[in-house]
């Protein structure tokens, strides 16, 4: 007997009441909880005992762990859960911990919608709404802490208000009710918010005469008060609605940290957290060693008490505890910020009558939120237009304009200064959307402007040529990107040309108006519009020689000109290629305007435009010009196209742009980029000569020889592929760092060879051969100091290095196999260059998790197992719908002991290093048999469909007597025992009573008798009763059967309902209706298969040709 039981029996001797309590503890509770324990102090429930227990009104609070015996995560979590149960018992908490095996309670698991394991549900003793614990707790302490908040009453009863200690910074808010009873709205709100606040009730009438008073107490903030008119109000009464508003407004403190500012801003904008205005305090608490600006903050304007810190240096950054670090960063400013927040925010009181309605529109409530700018730098830059710290950003309403207290990162010296700034925000110009100035350089003579510094930049030079453009985003097409690249290339040429021909040229600049707002002064006076971008503007400075601004009200103080191409003046359609289409015209326009600007020195006369012309692009080829190119041993690309081809029209500007770029980058290579029109008589002859059967077709011309082009159709694909071809197979570098620098901007890795380049070295010869074959997958480099040396075998290593941008999904790797087999090396490279998540430490569920680096092991090294693999995406709605079905399918295969691995892989985070596994959408399901390396796609998306598919192909790991080990059934006489075993696993209709149709009816029960014969052929059509193509094909099949009988042919026609019968024989696979199989006499598998509309006609033509 346990110690607790002995104590119970000992105390029972003293009184009858103790005896009764002892009986309840020792008899009733174990019986009601199921008797069996899973771990110490954890009671095992069954579905029956669960239902019995929750059908009673007298039970404790219970935490139930729902688990599955095959779940590795459940096994790892079991000792944590058991330890929590031990702590709960030691602390005598009024809650019991239990566990339930969902494999033995599938109905209950489905009812509770349990989709992952383990799952924790808390069931309160009052049978109110159950609550689930988010995630899997990492420690017993986390479980116990959560239970302490959840178990027992949500509202703690007080003897007096003196029992309460006012919350300290970081403590939860206190909600205190004074009244003779708890209103229904108060009790229900307390139950739902018990995890985020502490609730109390003082059972006495308020001294002020109201029916009841509810107070919200925050650390360092004034107490907020709600006055109840009646305490008997239900959840729908006016008092309850006003109380709900009061709680939304007041439960969030005036000064609060933002652990997730993105989520908090969304809640503010949607009204889930209510505030009229928001004050963001941007600090740094996570950048270790960051240099904080030498600015301090003074605290309260009130007189400081002795020992109280009123002014201090910035807080130190630390990464150990993000929440604690953020509190440490705000500590020097807390008193000042809190005083300002209290002064600025007038809380709405839920008074009755017209007064509250009048107050509603006059009251202003601010939330002051402090954020770790370093940790959330991208979000802060995107949403608040800030990139450094400290800053105070004021929004007069959630999502409103961003008013910066100081652009030079100065914090307020006291609360009064901040209060005055907030009150005067309407007088200050807000910061508009902008990128950070540090990223303003576009390279070369071209300047990149950002909204924040745009006005200052324009005033720093006599005049500026501005190109407005919309940077590429997720909706940009390839044509949009190419047009923009062409214009940027033209802009670079314009800037370089102006510097060449002018002593003092105007500045040439570009601004992305998708990510930067144009200052109001420029927008209002010149209509520099974001809507009509791209455009070109000429903007003189509005500062005169006396360094004074010539302002026209709020507008720019100088006349701004907009370039209008001649083609637009003539009414032609607008083209987004503003620069590249009319570069010479823009250059002359700029010179003309610049001659009138003081401070610029430009040529007085027209200038030759030879230097500004773009590189040559694509040339039209004839038979004669093509022959000349081939004879000259030239290299480049040749496109065969048709003018009517839509894909050719889309490809034309991409090809033209890529040609110009490659001509510029490889000016000494004498490259050729040509196109041949296959619709002309001469073009038709050339297309036939080079076997062109699709448009556009691209050939790689190398030394006058036509070779296959293996790249993509995008500009970057064309450029990257040809650059790879023009780059030496293996480059010499002095160090690994030099190799990394060479691939820094590339999307492919570098193969780094250490081990010499001696001609007689067989391993180096193999590496060089591999480099030639895989040059489009990786760059190859060798150390210069190893040239001419014969290295030892144990020093020869081929390393795989990744550029910085790719290290998230790829790991460095080394190949040092003793054999240096080319096939092994290529397989190693294929796997090493495949994107992959980290290999999971354990498999938490019945569905095996596959990542890129475990793909070969999971699918091809299964020990003879069949594999079904789902490729999914986390965001995919259909994948989420399939997930519980797929998991149930995996469990069913496991329970029935089928020789199959059911797996899944995140197709966005992982790649597949083997051919044949191509997919264009999610989810895609593949099946791979152990005898094959080629997968087939599975179309089934229901549990019954997946199970039926698997049973047709997969055998059980330990087959029962009389059953086949493989579900791919060999055809053999339908002996009683064999057919009985077959029908246990596969569905079949009953045998037809009689055969009256010329087309015989086949079911699984008689398939061996009808279809397989040594003396005659058979045509079997698998159909579906509702299929219109099947209905149309059936009369023709009957006609064929009658004709075959009349002609004395040894062939039989048969039909099978594919929805009511399985067909688990070798190679009898069908994915649509109708499907016709032709089985020759003496054969056990179909010789030919036809699918869909017209399949009978195809079958007839085939048989006539035999």
Automatic annotation (TrEMBL):
GO molecular function, one term: protein disulfide isomerase activity
SUPFAM superfamilies: Thioredoxin-like
Gene3D superfamilies registered for this protein in UniProt: Glutaredoxin
Keyword Signal assigned: yes
Record domain Thioredoxin: where: 22-152, 598-727, 828-955, 959-1106
Signal peptide per UniProt: 1-34
Chain segments annotated as transmembrane: none
The entry's keywords: Signal
GO terms, biological process: protein folding; response to endoplasmic reticulum stress
Name of the protein: Thioredoxin domain-containing protein
Originating organism: Polarella glacialis (Dinoflagellate)
